[in-house]
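quick one before i forget lol
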Amino acid sequence: DIPYDKRGNIITCFMFIKHKTKPNGDYDKTKARLVGDGSRQAEHMYDLVSSSTVALSSVFILLNIATYFKCQIITFDIKGAFLHAKFKDTDEVTYIKIPKEVADVWVEMDPASKKYQAQDGTLILELNKFIYGLKQSPLKFQELLTETLEALGYTRLRQDRCLFRKSKASSFSLLST
């Protein structure tokens, strides 16, 4: 039931599987990530894709500030970062085509999806969140992160779009993304 004019918005995807081990080398778990093949995305599916990164000079300045004020430096890794950014009504509808091998596992985990499996075993899904591999995913996550930081009271600095500041009385916080 995909509208005819949206059938060009179907991109293939891949499943990357990685076996994780504990520090002593013993098996811990197997992780999998579904990744869209953004190289096959047509330009009509997105407006902008460029996301900013903090300038190296800004990082050096932050390190100098932290040294001067004897600040604590913390780094964060946001797990599944792109999956936090949801499609909005203004975003082009995007579908992914799940290969048969992955679709079979998907149907096993969610039997209700069996009725959507094509005769060749593939499964086509409409995305409601951005996934790794889509050209616009980094920008959409950056927009979400900026909105979240600003909602928490951080101010984006004009000198570097990836620097944020928040202060209260004599304490302050500086973030770079």
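fyi Helices lie at 56-69, 100-109, 137-151.
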